[in-house]
Amino acid sequence: MADDIDKLVESLQKAILAGYSQKFKDELFNPMNFGKIENPDSYVRIKGVCGDTIEMSLIVRDEKIHDIKFVTDGCGATVACASYVTRTAQGKPIEEALKVKPEDVDRYFEGLPKEHKHCAKLAVMALRALLEEYCNKTNQESTGGVDIAE
Questions:
Q1: Which site among 77, 79, 93, 120 is 20 to 30 Å from 22 CA-CA?
Q2: Is the residue at 25 inside a domain?
Q3: Sign (positive/negative) of CA torsion 27, 28, 29, 35?
Q4: What pTM was computed for the model?
Q5: Side-chain half-sphere of 69: how many Cα atoms within 13 Å?
Q6: 67, 59 contact by CB (below 8 A)
Q7: Are 29 and 79 in contact (CB under 8 A)?
Q8: Domain of 104: which CATH number?
Q9: Beta-sheet strand order (sheet of 64-72)
């Protein structure tokens, strides 16, 4: 009986993940930076058009992103995209992290299905909002004004 259930689960996973790259699957099953930061330098909660929310927080040290984390109530694509975006921003100066675009996320994952491209936008929107909030809080000017509206 247990073998039958395992086979069913494996079959369902293969069907659900058909069309996703190995990079996507790796990020989905091993997300980085998932969690919350106690006493962050910046925190945001963003809700996407699909109803998914992403919370992001960070700590900045020596003008670089020292720690960045996220939590989400969203789908697997939102988890994978937020993981990739936070992983990409980790260790970078604010201005460099502001350059991350939804197209970068889509390209890294070798193309997201059309119905999940908004997840890349949501993850980047959350990152931008987080960095903008940090800049406003610390009276720094950001030059990340790229429109990524959903």
A1: 93
A2: yes
A3: positive
A4: 0.86
A5: 11
A6: yes
A7: no
A8: 3.90.1010.10
A9: 42-47, 53-61, 64-72
Residue 49: Cβ within 10 Å count: 10
Cβ atoms 83, 125 nearer than 8 A: no
Q: In this structure, are residues 36 and 55 in contact, taking their beta carbons and an 8 Å threshold? A: yes
Residue 4: inside a domain: no
Q: Give a yes or no: residue 102 inside a domain.
A: yes
pLDDT at 148 over 50: no
Coil/strand/helix, residue 63? coil
**Residue listed under structure tokens 């106690």:** 38
Note down the domain range covering 39.
21-137
Q: Tokens at residue 111, please?
A: 């193309």
- pLDDT, tens only, 33-59: 999 999 999 999 999 999 999 999 999
- How many angstroms separate the CA atoms of 33 and 87, rounded? 7
- Split into its structural domains, the chain has a count of 1
The Cα 82–Cα 84 span in angstroms is 5
**Does pLDDT of 135 surpass 90?**
yes
Give CA–CA dist 1/69, Å, rounded: 40
> Which carries the bigger pLDDT value, residue 74 or residue 3?
74
Tell me, yes or no, whether 80 lies in a domain: yes
